[in-house]
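Running co-folding for iron/sulfur cluster.
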Amino acid sequence: MAKIIKLDDKGVEFLEKIMELSGEIITLCDQCGTCSGGCPFITEMDVNPSQIMRQVMLGQKNIMDSKTMWICASCFTCTVRCPRDLDVSKVSEALRQVKLREAIDFIDIEEISDEEAKKLPSIAIVGAFRKFTG
Ligand code: SF4
Ligand code: SF4
């Protein structure tokens, strides 16, 4: 007999927040794993894309500690392949927004040396600040 998992209030609140921010009905995910199977950045991730969907569905806020949402490059490979028409990149972006709104940045400008800054293309620096800082 299938086990029914009941979310507590905080879990429901987290799930609803991510669904609202992403615009995705995350509960439609059937955990087929297609997104994880085709993600070109999977080797850099600590939690795979389908697990991200599952943990958000279960209201597990500790998923916010994963680096996957920062690694996701919004390449949309998973989006075009998802049989449920879900966009994992939007879910990643919603998770990033929650973190950045808490004033928790993924990169620290102070840690970039002048030498490194000179080597980096300016578009990479601007892109990184837009994505990784609030
Ligand atoms: S491909 Fe779509 S339905 Fe399948 S696990 Fe990923 S998000 Fe869920
Ligand atoms: S959009 Fe993100 S999760 Fe989806 S395949 Fe690309 S990098 Fe992976």
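Result summary
Residues 9-22 form the longest helix (14 residues).
The chain has two domains: 9-102, 107-134.
Job closed.
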